[in-house]
């Protein structure tokens, strides 16, 4: 065998070995990446938002409704408005014959309320109230669970733009959509969220008798 032919053969062999090593390393990396993706945000159960409602704090015993009329001032005082949500869980794998287990129930730990307007004027503290977060501690199973929470803070009625509605000195009504996101974890620590929306019309409504 000539020296030239020997070098050519050994060169091809080295290149093949290097390519094989690169393929194996790349495959291992892909396997690792896929595994991390599966573990991240992949809870086997999810939250089902069945109903989202609000009730005016200005009137004792006011009913929860799908559209909230929020009074910015009632007989010289302010009151926060409550929301109420009905939640349950369901399994992503609809073929699961046993249904949810103890690991699949979801514990809510906080929520976030954000306001927006359909006309695109959405500057917090100018066009809409500031967004805020609230704590929550309730566990949701496959049975419907209702939770009451603060939907409109009293503080928001002391700040712009809601304070400008008092006495009808400025705008008469500010119509918004409240997007409420609920955050939780299943019992294996995997994150779960769900968002619902409802209409809120802010004004200095007529005081209840």
Characterise this structure:
- The chain is α+β, with helices and mostly antiparallel strands and 209 residues long.
- The chain has 2 domains: 1-40; 47-203, Sandwich (Immunoglobulin-like), CATH 2.60.40.
- 18% of the residues lie in helices and 39% in strands.
- It is built from 1 helix and 8 strands; from the N terminus they run H-E-E-E-E-E-E-E-E.
Sum this structure up briefly:
With 209 residues, this protein is an alpha+beta fold. 18% of the residues lie in helices and 39% in strands.
Q: What attributes characterize this protein structure?
A:
elongated; 8 strands; alpha+beta
C-alpha Rg (nearest Å): 28 Å
Discrete helix count:
1
CATH topology of the largest domain: Immunoglobulin-like
Summarize model confidence as the mean pLDDT: 84
* Lateral strand order in the biggest sheet: 2-8-7-4-5
Taking the sheet with the most strands, its summary is:
5 strands, mixed
Assigned CATH architecture of the largest domain: Sandwich
CA-CA gap between termini = 110 Å
Uncertain regions: pLDDT < 50 for 5+ in a row? Answer: 15-40
Q: By helix and strand content, what is the structural category?
A: alpha+beta
User: How many beta-strand segments?
Assistant: 8
Taken from the alpha-carbon principal axes, the silhouette is elongated
The level-1 CATH class of the largest domain: Mainly Beta
Q: What level of helicity do the residues show?
A: 10-25%
Assembly category: single chain
Can you write the helix and strand succession as a string? Answer: HEEEEEEEE
Q: How many separate structural domains?
A: 2
Beta content: 35-45%
């Amino acid at each position: 065998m000539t020296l030239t032919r020997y070098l050519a053969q050994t060169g091809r062999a080295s290149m093949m070995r290097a390519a094989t090593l690169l393929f194996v390393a790349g495959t291992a990396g892909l396997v690792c990446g896929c595994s991390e993706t599966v573990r991240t945000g992949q809870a086997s159960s999810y939250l089902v938002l069945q109903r989202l409602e609000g009730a005016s704090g200005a009137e004792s015993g006011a009913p929860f409704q799908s559209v909230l009329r929020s009074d910015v001032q009632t007989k010289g005082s302010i009151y926060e408005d409550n929301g109420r949500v009905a939640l349950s869980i369901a399994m992503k794998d609809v073929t699961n014959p046993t249904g949810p287990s103890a690991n699949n129930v979801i514990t809510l730990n906080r929520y976030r309320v954000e306001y927006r307007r359909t006309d695109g004027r959405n500057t917090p503290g100018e066009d809409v109230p500031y967004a805020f977060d609230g704590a929550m501690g309730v566990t949701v199973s496959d049975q419907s669970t209702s939770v009451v929470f603060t939907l409109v803070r009293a503080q928001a009625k002391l700040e712009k733009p809601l304070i400008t509605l008092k006495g009808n000195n400025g705008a008469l009504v500010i119509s918004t959509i409240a997007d409420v996101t609920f955050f939780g974890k299943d019992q294996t620590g995997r994150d779960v969220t769900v968002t619902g929306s409802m209409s809120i019309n802010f004004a200095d409504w007529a005081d209840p008798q």
